[in-house]
Amino acid sequence: MDFTAVLAQIKPKLGCVADNLAAIEERIIKARDAGADLIVFPELALSGYFLKDLVPEVALRADSPEIQRLVELSQNISIAIGFVEETADYHFFNSALYLEDGAIRHLHRKVYLPTYGLFDEQRYLARGESFRAFDTKFGRIGMLICEDMWHLSASYILAMDGATTLICLSSSPARGIETDSLGSASAWQKLVSTTAMFLNCRVLYCNRVGFEDGVNFWGGSEYIAPSGESIVRGALLEDDFVTARVDEGALRRERIFSPMMRDENMFVTMQELGRITHERRQ
Fold first, then answer.
1. Which of 134, 164, 177, 222 could be joined to 106 by an S-S link, Cβ 3.0–4.6 Å?
2. Residue 238 is part of a domain; what is its CATH number?
3. What is the pTM of this model?
4. Residue 274: partners with Cβ closer than 8 Å, 6 or more residues away
C-alpha cells in the first residue's frame, strides 16, 4: 500500500530522557495531525549518543512509563525509535522499537557495535544477535541501527526474510570535507542507494543532528526508492521534518524491471558460506 512517512531529524539532549520524550511526542503529534502514517526517529533518540557511563542512568525497560507512552501514541501513527534498552538481567542494548496500533511490533538490538575512532559502544553495551523482518500494515519491514547497515549481510538477511522496506536509525557524525559535501554524507548516500538498488527494496534512513561532546551530527535523512533514486533528502546540520510519500507502484515496477530478488539463490549462498566456515576451521 502507499503510505506517508516522516523522518524526524531531531537534536536529542545527551542524557535528558524526559526532555527528549517531550520533543519526540511533539513531533509525533505534528506528523499524525499532518496525516502521516509512520514517523521514524534516529538512533538513541531518547537519550543522545555519546553516553558512556550514563548508559545505566538513561536505560529503559520495554514496560517503562516512557515506552508505554510511545506505545499509546502509536494507536494513530506507527513509530520507529531508538533507545537504550535494559533487560531483566541488567544487560544494556542499543535498541530500536517499531510500534503500531498501540503495541510493540518489533524490537531490534544493534548487532554491530562500532568500537574504533570516535566510537566506543562495545565497552558499554551488549550486542544483539539477530536480524528479523516483521509484518506491518505497510508490508514486511526490517530495521537496522547505523553500523548494522555497513555490514552487507545484515540488509541481505532482512531482504531474504521478505523485507520490502528497510528502516535505518542512525547517529552518524560529520566527518571529512569534500569539494561540495561532507565525506560521511557522501558515503551514506552511496550506501543506502546501492542497498536499495541491489535488494529491490525501499530505504528510510533517519540520521540525527546537533553537537555532542564536540562532535557534530550531519542529518541528511532520506527516502530511497527501490531503483536507488533519492526521492527526498533532509537538510544538512539542522533539524528537519522530512516527509516522504512511499509509492507501492514503484516497488512493483522495479521488481518487474529488475528482478534480482526473484533470482537470488540463498541456498547457494548458504552452501558456500558453510564451505568457507568448514575450510577456515581446518
1. 134
2. 3.60.110.10
3. 0.97
4. none
